[in-house]
Amino acid sequence: MKVAVTGIKPTQEPHLGNYFGAIRPAQQLVEDHRGIFFIADYHALTTIRDPEALRTHVYDVAASWLACGLDPDRVLLFRQSDVPEHCELAWVLSCLLATGQLERGHAYKDALARGESPNAGIFNYPVLMAADILLYDADRVPVGRDQVQHLELARDAAARLNHLYGDDLVKVPEALISEAPLVPGLDGRKMSKSYGNTIPLFAPAAQLQSTVMKIVTGSEGLDEPKEAEGSSVFQLYSLVASEEAQREMATRLRQGGYGWGHAKQALAAALETQLAPLREHYQYLRRDEANLDALLEQGAKQARQIARRTMRRIRSAIGIGPAPSANFDKTVRMKL
Predict the structure, then answer these.
(1) CA 18 vs CA 42, 54, 180, 270, 304: distances in Å
(2) Which of 144, 261, 201 shows the shortest CA–CA distance to 249?
(3) Which of 7, 144, 228, 234 is disulfide-compatible with 40, CB 3.0–4.6 A?
(4) Domain 202-285 - what CATH class?
């Protein structure tokens, strides 16, 4: 099976955008790929300064993905920081890439445009991401269209490494463009913690409904006709309701006498129907952090084996450590 690698940044409470934009597509991905999923706590250090918050978010992410159906017996799920080779390979790659490539990074340029002074972690973020991918000889990396730039840098890094030290040293990954839907937030923009417009994935029913009622809509009166297409309420409803239910809501909105408040109530009810069982499972998993640690370590143990083989190969090629004997090199390659 082809290997697909995905990183999940633990910087927030899981929300609907994570579920529809990442978790569900990942479940489909592992049907015909070997999935390697890591919780990117090193990446989170670019913004999180509270150690307890970081640990909490790691558990939140692990419990969320497991509650939503990720099977740890079929995929690798682990903490990035439990595999130190991520940082080692990032240093190697940073010595091969030009600073001009990093200066064009979206996150770095956006921070500068906002008048901020971004930390070096944001500048080097794409290098660590490239290491995350190349370390596991990924064939494919699922990315949104706005993330293709990061994968291109990983491909450049792989090509540079192979050109200098051996054509088959690392695999050059391919982009797997995600067709996941754009999930609108409360204000109509893409749902994101940075916009403060998220709907929590596992909020209690009452909180879920009160949050849904905050979705920005048009100002049409109750009796006025309303257009469903293009509204955030209807877009979200389309993610959870049957086609028949969608047609019914659209018809009622166009006819008038059916307000946005009614549509929001229908959305909240549909979300509760789908999310209530997942919430119960999430709460069960989240209460047992020792079990989550054990599951993450189970994945990390296998991930370390792959990462160490990759770095043994790279160290030998670039001249780090003693020169291996011919027999040692032959043995290593046979194991790979």
Answers:
(1) 19, 17, 10, 18, 27
(2) 261
(3) 7
(4) mainly alpha
pLDDT in tens, 222-251: 999 999 999 999 999 999 999 999 999 999
| pLDDT single digits (tens) 261-313 | 999 999 999 999 999 999 999 999 999 999 999 999 999 999 999 999 999 99
Going 221 to 222 to 224 to 228, the CA torsion angle's sign is positive
Sheet holding 76-79, edge to edge: 76-79, 33-39, 2-8, 140-143, 174-177
pLDDT of residue 194: 81
Residue spans of the domains in the chain: they are: 2-183+288-335, 202-285
* Cβ atoms of 140 and 173 closer than 8 Å: yes
In this prediction, residue 333 carries a pLDDT of 47
**Other C-beta atoms lying within 10 Å of the C-beta of residue 185:** 22
User: Whats the size of the chain, residue-wise?
Assistant: 336
- Answer yes or no: is pLDDT of 38 > 50: yes
CATH architecture of 2-183+288-335: 3-Layer(aba) Sandwich (3.40)
Give residue 193's pLDDT.
85
Beta-bridged to residue 142, according to DSSP, are 176
What phi and psi, each to the nearest 5 degrees, are found at residue 47?
-130, -25
- The chain-wide mean pLDDT, for the chain, equals 93
Three-class HEC string of the chain? CEEEEEEECCCCCCEHHHHHHHHHHHHHHCCCEEEEEEECHHHHCCCCCCHHHHHHHHHHHHHHHHHCCCCCCCCEEEEHHHCCHHHHHHHHHHCCCCHHHHHCCHHHHHHHHCCCCCCHHHHHHHHHHHHHHHCCCCCEEEECHHHHHHHHHHHHHHHHHHHHHCCCCCCCCEEEECCCCCCECCCCCECCHHHCCCCECCCCHHHHHHHHCCCCCCCCCCCCCCCCCCCHHHHHHHHHCCHHHHHHHHHHHHHCCCCHHHHHHHHHHHHHHHHHHHHHHHHHHHCCHHHHHHHHHHHHHHHHHHHHHHHHHHHHHHCCCCCCCHHHHHHHHHHC
